Amino acid sequence: MDQIKIENLEVFAKHGVFPEENVLGQKFLISATLYTDTRHAGKTDDLTASIHYGEVSQFIDAYMKAHTYQLIERVAESLAEELLLHTKHLQKIELEVKKPWAPVGLPLESVSVKILRKWHTAYIALGSNMGEKQKYLDGAVKALDSRKDCQVEKKSSWLITPPYGVTEQDDFLNGCLKLRTLLSPEELLEVLNQTEKEAGRERIIHWGPRTLDLDIIFYDDLILETDTLCIPHVEMHKRDFVLKPLHEIAPYKHHPGNGKTVREMLEEIQK
Known about the structure:
Elements lengths: L1 E12 L5 H6 L1 E11 L2 H6 L8 H14 L5 H15 L5 E8 L11 E8 L1 E9 L4 H13 L4 E6 L3 E3 L10 E10 L3 H14 L14 E7 L4 E2 L4 E2 L8 H10 L12 H9 L1
Antiparallel strand pairs: 1-2, 2-3, 3-4, 5-8, 5-9, 6-8, 7-8, 10-11
Keywords: Folate biosynthesis, Lyase, Transferase
Pfam families: FolB, HPPK
Family: Belongs to the DHNA family.
């Protein structure tokens, strides 16, 4: 991905742990590497096709002066998020916040924090087999899309499927969506669990009836296994109620583990 760089933008702002830092303020140096595709702008000479680094610099200056934080870690995190949310064409940012006047009582050039943040693509499976099923599913889509750090880019149609695991229960309504998000996998899982809870989800019987079930199927090309989270979803390649709606919105998405496309995995279980 192409890069546009802003190096050591000087800003006077009021961030720091000590009260006098919040009152008197001090100098900060901000460097940003903006990741985007400059091909179209380079071919057309059209400023609107690229990132306006002058506007980004003004945004950084205004944001730094409008807020007061104790930690430069907080400064970097908040500023990176706001730039990703408000800068057209920006896909990823490497941001460094330097504090040359850091009050440590020793001679130093600067103290800094450098972070890398980006938009991620996740695929979420949705299901419900209790009460007003479509209302729960539509509500989950709306709840995710209403967050500033999430954008629903595609949604499959809803599919009626028989229950999986515990078969003596009502049919499910299932679907999948494509989500653009700034959340980490763990943060996204927490948001999904909270959304389920708000829909009245109770975890009583494994694979039992539920008002709302939300699972992370893919997250970029990440392979992750922890005590609470497995990505890609461990059973997704065996489940037609996941693969059918997923195929509708992402037939050529590759499984990062086995290398197969969603279409290939669906065809395998339909044989």
